[in-house]
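Page 37, continued from 36.
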């Protein structure tokens, strides 16, 4: 059997690989049309708003017609992820590894902000679609010029990936309008000051007594993201230094 025939049908379509022709009429639309319809539904109502029947209705076809393209809802998620992220950013070769992986992480974060429903899709297996593998390759390329082994580069890239997903998950449901954010922060600080007394929660109280620096006051989310990413990269830098000296 041809190895390509062993690939799931949805991956054959995403890679442009022709599998065995299926019986029935000629397909009326492309896999990318399904992706756009599903993404439109998810952007408007979250992942829960996506179903085979709703995607079919968005395209003006019957639910059964979708099964000529995707075998199950999990396949639909693969198609959505492939088109929601599109291609990875082009990393500036003039930047050092920290600059390149920072640009990669920020682009990844921006993709999750545009489509927060991505975080609701369960990760059941490593990526195999074209754009998803291109993102992985781009993240690995960011470490070119370092002494990290291929496995260490993969682990470093995954560490950054996990950090970005984690911070995006924490802020996915928070307010995004600046005025609403400021009011929510003010109210939270007021209530926290009342509840987190120094005798019971000295660590929390100490953070409330210290004013935010200029960076945090301007954009708390961006400053917090930058602080965490810098700390993660400092750890990778230590690993790189250790590798060079051993």
């Amino acid at each position: 059997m041809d190895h390509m025939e062993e690939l799931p049908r949805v991956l054959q379509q995403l890679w442009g690989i022709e599998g065995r022709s299926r019986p029935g009429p000629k397909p009326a639309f492309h896999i990318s049309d399904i992706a756009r319809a599903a993404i439109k539904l998810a952007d408007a109502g979250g992942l829960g708003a996506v179903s085979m029947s709703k995607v079919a209705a968005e395209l003006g076809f019957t639910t059964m017609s979708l099964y000529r393209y995707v075998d199950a809802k999990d396949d639909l998620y693969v198609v959505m992820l492939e088109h929601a992220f599109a291609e990875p950013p082009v990393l500036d070769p003039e930047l050092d590894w920290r600059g390149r992986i920072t640009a990669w992480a920020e682009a990844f974060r921006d993709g999750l902000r545009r489509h927060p429903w991505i975080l609701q899709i369960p990760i059941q297996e490593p990526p195999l679609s074209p754009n998803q593998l291109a993102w992985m390759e781009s993240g690995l390329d960011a470490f070119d010029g370092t002494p990290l082994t291929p496995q260490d580069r993969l682990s470093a890239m995954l560490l950054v990936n996990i950090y970005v997903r984690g911070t995006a998950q924490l802020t996915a449901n928070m307010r995004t309008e600046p005025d609403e954010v400021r009011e929510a922060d003010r109210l939270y600080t007021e209530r926290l000051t009342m509840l987190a007394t120094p005798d019971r929660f000295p660590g929390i109280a100490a953070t409330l007594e210290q004013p935010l620096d200029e960076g945090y006051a301007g954009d708390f989310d961006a400053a917090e993201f930058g602080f965490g990413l810098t700390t993660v990269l400092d750890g990778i830098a230590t690993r790189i230094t250790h590798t060079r000296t051993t």
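The chain has two domains: 3-84, 97-173+211-244. Flag for discussion at group meeting. Residues 12 and 18 are 7 Å apart (CA to CA).
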